[in-house]
Input
Amino acid sequence: MKVFVTGATGFVGSFLVPELIGAGHDVVGLSRSDAGAEALTRAGAKVRRGDVNDLDALRAAAAAAEGVIHTAFNHDTSDLKQHAENDRRVVATLGAALAGTDRPLIVTSATGLVTSATGEPVRESDAHATSAVFPRAASEEAADALIAEGGNVMVMRLPQVHDTRRQGRIRWHIQIAKEQGRVAYVGAGRNRVPAVHVSDAARLFRLALERGEAGARYHAVAEEGVSLREIAEVIGVGLKLPVESITPEEAPGYYGWLAQLAQLDLPASGAGTRRQLRWDPTGPDLLTDLHEADYDAA
Ligand SMILES: NC(=O)c1ccc[n+]([C@@H]2O[C@H](COP(=O)([O-])OP(=O)(O)OC[C@H]3O[C@@H](n4cnc5c(N)ncnc54)[C@H](OP(=O)(O)O)[C@@H]3O)[C@@H](O)[C@H]2O)c1
Output
């Protein structure tokens, strides 16, 4: 299949492109830089130069493809709401370019946008929060609209995606611990994050492209919930810093902008996804990758 991949030069995209090419697909990757274009060419992909927010160019690239995987996102936390609203337009544009065809579009979202009222891991069928609560949900809202119009659109919700170099939002926990000279967790630190190795996430995107069903939500979850206390203890060893519990009142002083997120319990299940797409994650777990991370580089 001729697949147009946005975010092809990113963390997930750099694993996704070789995964697709290895399975026999022709990949056209979007890049806005020379370095990204060179990396894509080295990986065996064709390159579309440009910015994802250039909607005319994006529409043309999607229309020329037999399938689209959209993973680009601007993670600059200073204006997340604006970036999320931009992504709503990007998703709508990609969907419009493929409307009336059976060509698949996979939209990337996050399991953290689905909150558990019961403490049970959230499932693929659970509704996401609105963008009024979590701005990042704008992308999934745009996908909802395309699905309602009958598009062959799927949503891939990612948990903390990791290898030894990157571990989702845990990189900010490491950064804050370095700045604070200690590694903290809140209360008993029983709140959890789900996780997946980046190579397993890449394979799941491919399986969804090849076997996924229109309107499906998939959870790329290998581990349902790793506690923040376990994570803090491994980071403490890596950074050679003391590890301690802090109170919710102390959390803003320690975590800053991450304080609220750091206290959420966000377990998620990928059981339905494993069954439907016959996906069997095999990569190392989050704590193993955190053990082996390079804390000088992090
Ligand atoms: N990693 C995780 O743990 C995680 C968890 C949940 C959800 N997600 C979602 O998964 C997706 C992939 O995440 P990631 O970790 O791979 O992100 P990433 O490493 O930050 O990569 C982002 C990609 O988007 C591209 N991009 C950003 N703004 C662009 C623009 N204006 N025009 C063109 N390209 C642009 C970047 O291009 P450049 O190379 O040019 O910068 C890069 O290829 C994102 O939607 C993210 O929100 C990730």
